[in-house]
Specification:
One of its GO terms (biological process) is cell differentiation. Belongs to the DRC7 family. InterPro entries: CEPT76/DRC7_peptidase-like_dom, DRC7/lobo, MORN_DRC7, Papain-like_cys_pep_sf. It comes from Melanocharis versteri. This protein has 705 residues and is of the alpha+beta class. Among the domains are: 238 residues, no CATH class; 201 residues, no CATH class. Helices cover 28% and strands 20% of the residues. It is built from 17 helices and 25 strands. A 16-stranded antiparallel sheet has the order 10-11-12-13-14-15-16-17-18-19-20-21-22-23-24-25, with helices on one face. α7 runs antiparallel to α9. The radius of gyration is 37 Å and the shape is elongated.
C-alpha cells in the first residue's frame, strides 16, 4: 500500500499539484485574512455592516426600475456568453448586491459628482480626500471580489470600505471633475492589497528627478585635447570598481536580516484588488496612469505592483480585458476602441460583439450555435443606453471636508519613516502633519522630524528638527511682519547661533540671509545698487567687569573687531577703481582695499591705510602720509598715485566706517527683536480663521464670550 501511495503521488500532474496547493491555501484563508486584518492600521473593532439602518434610503436603493431590470438581463446574457467562450477565466464583477440586498449593475453605482471645493477639481485632491476620509477594510476573501458593492453615499456616511468601495467613490469624483476615469477589477501584490507600505519610501522623502544638463549648442567651439590616458589602466580601474561594487552588494545582502526581507506570498497573482485608471486626453492628462485608492498615489501603468486586469467600467459602459496578463499590466494596451484587446458589453457602434462572432467549441452535450443566431439575440441591446445612476447625490459638508479623519488622525508607516496626519484646527498649534525619519527599519532611533502647520497667524508652515544636532529650522510663508522666510536655531536665546533668511525683495537693503553667533555675524545681499553681496563682522569679548555688574547686553555691546565687505563687479567702472573687498580693522585702525581684476590681469591692486605709530589718535582727524599708506596698483593710471586722491578716499572710508558701525548695531538690535517676537509667537500661538468659514468663526466667538 505504501508503494502504491508513492506511485500515485508520482503520477500527479502539475495541474493537480497546483490545485492541491491552492486548496490548501483556501483552507487557511480565514487565518490569512485574520493576519491581514491585524496588519491594517486601524484601532477600531470590526464594523458590522449587517447592522446599518437602510430604512431611510431612497426607493432607488431598494428596487430596480424596468430599465435596470433589462440591464441586468443583458448583463446575465453577456456573462453566459463570456463563461461559454472563456471557461478558464474568473467570474466577472458585474452586478453585486447593494446595502439593501438588491442587485445593481456596477456602472450604475458610479455617480459622477463635482464637489464645490477647489482641491477636488484635481485628481490629486480627490485621491487624497478619499484615502484620508475612508478607513480601509480588507476583502473577506483575498482571491475573490466582494459579493456586495454599497453606494458611495453609504460609504461616505460610515467612512469605511474595501478597495472596490474606495475605487467607485474616487472614480465618481474624477468623472465629475472631467477626467476620463474608470474603475478597475484586477490583481495586485500583497503589499498593495493590504495597504502595507513599510517597505516603501515615503513620498515626502523622494528626491525630484534630476534635469539633464543641456549640451552646449555651439558645436563649433574649440575642443581642447584631453590628457593622454592608458586604456589598459582604465580597464583595470573599471574591473576593480566592478569587483568592489559586487563585494559591497554581497555584504549588504548578508547584512539584511530575515525580518527585513519581503515575505513570499503564496497567493501572488490571485489577490483581487480594485483601483482607478485615468486615460490620457481629457483635462490635458498627458499620459495614462493608475491611482491606488488606498494611498492616493500616482502609478505608472508599467508598475510591477499591478499584476493583471479582468475588467474596467465607468458610468456608461463595461469592458472586459482580452489581453494576456502573464507579464502584469506593462504590456497592456488601453485603447478601448480596440475590440481585440477589450470586449465591450454595450457596443458603441453597429459592429457585433467579438464574443458573439467567435464560434464556441464543440461539446458532446452542446450543439454549435450559429453566430448569426447569437447576433440576433444580442441585437436589441447593441446600442443600449445606460440608465442613470441609482445612487443619490454625493454630498460632503465643509466640516466633513475639513476634518476627514474619523479617528482624529491618520498614521502611515513607511520604510524607516512614520507619517502622521491631523485635520485642520485639530491641534492648538496648527499642526496638520508630522514626518519622523528613523535610522533603522524598526523605527526606534529618530534622525529627523518634519512638521507642517496650517492657519497660523505667524505664517509658520513647516518645521524641521534634526534630533541628533537639535537644530531647528522654521519656514514661513510670505507676509510675516519681520519678512522672515526661514529661521535655523538650537535655542531662542540670543547669540547662540541663528541663521535667518528673509524675503529680500520686500526689504530695502536687499538682505536675504544673516548668520549670527557670539563671535561673528555674516550678512548676504541680493540685487543692491552698490553691488554689495556679503558683509562679515567679527566681535570681541565683552568687558567681564561690566557683565558681573549685571548690566544688560544692550548697555554692554560686543566690541567690533573687524568688518569685511565683498562686492560684485561693476561693469561701469574700470577694474582698478572697482572695489572687490574692503576690510575695516576697527581696533587696529587699519583699512584694506582690494580691487577687481581685468581679464588679462593676474595680480589685484591693493591699498592699505594704517595707523601712524607713536601718534595719538584724535576724533574726526584724517592724517595721511607716505608712512601710513601702502598701495600696490600696477595697472592704475597716474591719478591713483596722487596723494590728494588717496586723502579723499581715506576721508570717505572713515565716514563709511562710522555708518557701518551703526548698521552693525542696527543688525544686532534687529536680531534681538526677531528672537523676542518669535519667542512671544511660540508662547502665544494663534490660528487664523477664514471669513468664509462661518462654522469655525462661530465656535471661535463662543470660546471668547
Amino acid at each position: 500500500m505504501e508503494a502504491l501511495e508513492e506511485t500515485e503521488e508520482v503520477e500527479l500532474t502539475p495541474e493537480d499539484v497546483i490545485s492541491l496547493n491552492i486548496s490548501d491555501f483556501l483552507d487557511d484563508l480565514e487565518t490569512d485574512a485574520a493576519v491581514e486584518k491585524a496588519s491594517v492600521p486601524s484601532d477600531e473593532p470590526d464594523f458590522d455592516w449587517s447592522s446599518i439602518d437602510t430604512s431611510h434610503l431612497p426607493s432607488s436603493y431598494k428596487t430596480n426600475s424596468q430599465k435596470e431590470k433589462e440591464l441586468l438581463q443583458f448583463a446575465d446574457h453577456f456573462l453566459q456568453q463570456y463563461t461559454h467562450l472563456c471557461p478558464d477565466r474568473k467570474p466577472l464583477f458585474v452586478h453585486p448586491v447593494n446595502e439593501c440586498g438588491v442587485q445593481k449593475f456596477v456602472s450604475t453605482t458610479v455617480r459622477p459628482t463635482l464637489l464645490p471645493y477647489p482641491d477636488l477639481y484635481y485628481w490629486s485632491g480627490c485621491a487624497s480626500f478619499v484615502c484620508d476620509y475612508l478607513i480601509m477594510e480588507p476583502l473577506k476573501c483575498p482571491i475573490t471580489p466582494p459579493s456586495s458593492l454599497y453606494s458611495p453615499t453609504t460609504i461616505l456616511k460610515y467612512q469605511r470600505g474595501n478597495c472596490f468601495d474606495f475605487t467607485v467613490l474616487l472614480c465618481s469624483l474624477l468623472i465629475g471633475a472631467g477626467y476620463d476615469a474608470y474603475c478597475v477589477h484586477g490583481y495586485a501584490t500583497l503589499e498593495m492589497c493590504s495597504l502595507d507600505q513599510t517597505q516603501e519610501l515615503c513620498p515626502r522623502l523622494r528626491k525630484p528627478p534630476e534635469v539633464p544638463e543641456e549640451e552646449d549648442p555651439n558645436k563649433y567651439r574649440i575642443k581642447y585635447p584631453l590628457e593622454p590616458q592608458s586604456k589598459f589602466e582604465l580597464e583595470q580601474k573599471a574591473k576593480e570598481e566592478e569587483t568592489k561594487s559586487a563585494q559591497e552588494e554581497e555584504r549588504e545582502e548578508e547584512a539584511v536580516t530575515e525580518v527585513e526581507k519581503p515575505r513570499r506570498d503564496p497567493l501572488r497573482g490571485l489577490r483581487v484588488h480594485a483601483w482607478v485608471l485615468v486615460l490620457a486626453g481629457k483635462r490635458k492628462v498627458p499620459e495614462t496612469f493608475f491611482i491606488n485608492p488606498f494611498t492616493g498615489n500616482h502609478h505608472s501603468t508599467m508598475d510591477e505592483c499591478f499584476l493583471g486586469i479582468e475588467s474596467i467600467w465607468n458610468h456608461r459602459n463595461y469592458w472586459v480585458n482580452m489581453q494576456d496578463c502573464r507579464k502584469g499590466c506593462k504590456d497592456l494596451s488601453f485603447d478601448l476602441s480596440d475590440s481585440i484587446c477589450w470586449e465591450i458589453m454595450f457596443s458603441e457602434s453597429n459592429e457585433p460583439s467579438q464574443l458573439l462572432t467567435e464560434s464556441p467549441k464543440k461539446d458532446k452535450d452542446d450543439t454549435v450555435s450559429d453566430p448569426s443566431d447569437a447576433l440576433e439575440q444580442w441585437g436589441p441591446y447593441m446600442s443600449f443606453e445606460m440608465p442613470l445612476s441609482w445612487v443619490a447625490r454625493i454630498k460632503v459638508s465643509y466640516r466633513e471636508y475639513e476634518n476627514p479623519f474619523s479617528q482624529g488622525k491618520k498614521v502611515i508607516l513607511y520604510d524607516k519613516a512614520k507619517q502622521e496626519k491631523w485635520a485642520a484646527y485639530a491641534n492648538g498649534d496648527g499642526l496638520v502633519e508630522r514626518l519622523t525619519v528613523y535610522a533603522d527599519s524598526d523605527r526606534t532611533e529618530e534622525v529627523e522630524v518634519k512638521e507642517w502647520f496650517k492657519h497660523r497667524e505667524d505664517l509658520l508652515y513647516m518645521r524641521e528638527v534634526n534630533t541628533q544636532t537639535q537644530l531647528i529650522t522654521d519656514h514661513f510663508s510670505p507676509g510675516h511682519p519681520l519678512l522672515l522666510k526661514a529661521h535655523s536655531y538650537t535655542s531662542l536665546e540670543p547669540e547662540t547661533g541663528h541663521t535667518v533668511e528673509f524675503y529680500h525683495t520686500a526689504r530695502v537693503d536687499g538682505l536675504w540671509k544673516r548668520f549670527e553667533n557670539a563671535t561673528e555675524m555674516t550678512e548676504y545681499f541680493v540685487g543692491r545698487e552698490d553691488f554689495l553681496h556679503m558683509r562679515h563682522i567679527e566681535f570681541g569679548e565683552r568687558d567681564k567687569k561690566i557683565e558681573k555688574a549685571g548690566i544688560t547686553a544692550d548697555a554692554n555691546p560686543r566690541p567690533i573687531v573687524q568688518i569685511k565687505e565683498c562686492f560684485h563687479r561693476n561693469p561701469e567702472k574700470p577694474a582698478d577703481e572697482d572695489i572687490e573687498e574692503r576690510i575695516f580693522m576697527v581696533i587696529d585702525d587699519i583699512i584694506q582695499l582690494t580691487y577687481h581684476l581685468e581679464l588679462h590681469d593676474t595680480i589685484a591692486s591693493k591699498v592699505v591705510f594704517c595707523r601712524v605709530i607713536g601718534r595719538e589718535k584724535r576724533e574726526d582727524e584724517i592724517f595721511l602720509s607716505r608712512e601710513n599708506s601702502v598701495k600696490y596698483q600696477p595697472w592704475s593710471s597716474e591719478k591713483h598715485k596722487n596723494m590728494l586722491h588717496l586723502y579723499d578716499l581715506l576721508w570717505e572710508l572713515r565716514a563709511e566706517q562710522k555708518e557701518l558701525k551703526q548698521q552693525v548695531r542696527d543688525s544686532e538690535a534687529e536680531m534681538l527683536n526677531i528672537l523676542t517676537v518669535r519667542e512671544d509667537e511660540e508662547a502665544n500661538i494663534k490660528l487664523s480663521v477664514s471669513m468664509y468659514n462661518t462654522a469655525k468663526r462661530g465656535q471661535q466667538h463662543e470660546a471668547t464670550v
